[in-house]
Automatic annotation (TrEMBL):
Residues 11-432 form the Regulatory protein YycH domain. This is Regulatory protein YycH domain-containing protein. Keywords: Membrane, Transmembrane, Transmembrane helix. The chain crosses the membrane at residues 12-31. InterPro entries: YycH, YycH/YycI_2. Pfam families: YycH.
Length: 439
């Protein structure tokens, strides 16, 4: 029995020694453990950007071009981005109490609205559901495809705010829980910073005070600007857009440069226009542009593509193109070569085409210069209405914008000149008003 007990004690000692050694080894391994991060690195790998990453606010990109405060006999308005955004934010993240569609028939009256209201004007027809959910951040579920280009805000008739999304065929009326008093106080503070506005009736669709065209009454204080041009590096865009960086072939020609890769083709012409086509998408499977607005925003924003103040400006249903246009001091910028535009065509799953100007004002120092004073809105209206070459009923919108021109390449440092003009959307096409003519 003594021998057996001795063996048991020896076995217990051996087991105890093994357990102690195992504990020491495990403790050492835990202290010195280094995880394998290969997969994590691949997931968070970031591409080159051409501007700041993820700083774009979707509300800025889909901002209206003007805000109008309507009071009978006293119309005020503004294109100031900060003022517009302040009221947009106040309307956001509120609860929808009720929502229903009204027939427009081109003559929306909304007789139950008082004589004081706010208008937000947009240059393009925007899907109602997309704007309400993504911009105003309200919970709204609908499968309708109706669009709008004006929001009418009634904050006078009731204690809470009612919104009217005015479209060509339908008007969506939304009653919210947003308090009218707070919104009205913001408007009261803002009106001191607004300018006098006038209205214009051009056809039966603009015969109501709810549907008339509104624009600044005077434009003689609008200045011109000159910026030093900052050219975006083509390699930076290629690094952000083209997936296969190791197999890019560059071919230089007199008319420009072409880059070929296994995933896409890029062309850069002599006018500083960059165009990318995705080889994985086909021309036959273009998505409806209004269904891909958020996708197009995320694509451009993901590589810092909104290098200046850009906003949705135009949608071409025939070519299925979404066009974002540069704004300066709250006013749209036009350029005949497309230098002030960013356009996207979406395919079945990804972007099919991406086109943009390569010049930016993001690091420029502006300087003002004297220009010829612009005529009044009434003068523009009179010239169009009295001309044999034009029909006033074909005027859909009027606004003040800038024509952007690039200085000759012979200069040491290229400059961008922004000169103000009246712009008229005539028969569906934006045209510059210059001394009685539309060009």
């Amino acid at each position: 029995m003594t021998v057996i007990g001795m063996y048991k004690n020896i076995i217990k000692s051996i087991i105890l020694i093994i357990l102690v050694c195992s504990s020491v080894i495990l403790t050492y391994q835990i202290w010195n453990f280094k995880p394998q991060l290969t997969n994590v690195d691949n997931l968070v790998e970031e591409k080159t950007t051409i501007g700041p990453r993820f700083v774009d606010n979707i509300k800025n990109i889909y901002m209206p071009f003007q805000l109008v405060s309507y009071k009978e006999g006293d119309m005020k308005g503004t294109t100031d981005s900060n003022l517009i955004m302040e009221l947009t934010n106040d309307l956001s993240e509120n609860k929808i109490l009720s929502a229903y569609l009204l027939d427009n028939n081109g003559k929306f009256q909304a007789k139950d609205i008082g004589k004081d209201y706010i208008l937000f004007d947009f240059t393009e027809d925007i899907p109602q559901t997309m704007y309400i959910t993504n911009i105003l951040e309200m919970t709204y579920k609908s499968n309708d495809k109706y669009t709008f280009n004006r929001i009418l805000v009634d904050s006078e008739s009731f204690e809470t705010i009612t919104l009217y999304f005015v479209g060509k065929d339908k008007v969506l009326k939304i009653e919210t829980d947003a308090k009218s008093d707070h919104f009205n106080q913001l408007v009261k503070n803002q009106r001191e910073k607004m300018t006098d506005y006038s209205s214009l009736v051009t056809n039966v669709h603009t015969s109501s005070d709810k549907t008339q065209l509104y624009m600044p009454a005077q434009a003689d204080d609008v200045k011109a600007y000159r910026f030093i041009a900052d050219r975006i590096d083509v390699k930076d865009i290629n690094d952000a857009v083209l997936d296969d960086q190791d197999n890019i072939i560059q071919r230089d020609r007199e008319e420009g440069t072409t880059y070929f890769s296994n995933t896409g083709i890029v062309s850069v012409d002599a006018n500083d226009i960059y165009k990318y086509n995705n080889l994985s998408e086909t021309d036959l499977l273009k998505s409806a542009p209004r269904d891909t607005l958020v996708k197009s925003f995320k694509f451009i924003s993901s590589h810092g593509g909104f290098t200046d103040d850009y906003r949705l400006f135009d949608i071409d249903d025939d070519s299925r193109t979404i066009n974002y246009q540069m704004f300066l001091s709250g006013r749209p910028v036009f350029n005949s070569e497309g230098l002030s535009d960013i356009s996207v065509v979406w395919g079945k799953d990804e972007e099919y085409e991406y086109r943009r100007g390569l010049l930016s004002t993001s690091v420029a120092v502006p300087s003002t210069q004297e220009v010829e004073k612009l005529p009044s809105a009434e003068k523009v209206r009179f010239d169009i209405a009295s001309s044999r070459n034009y029909q006033l009923e074909k005027v859909n919108k009027m606004m003040i914008g800038y024509e952007m021109a690039k200085s000759p390449d012979s200069e040491i440092q290229a400059n961008l000149l922004f000169e103000p003009y009246w712009y008229v959307e005539y028969d569906g096409t934006w045209m510059k008003y210059d001394k009685g003519r539309l060009k």
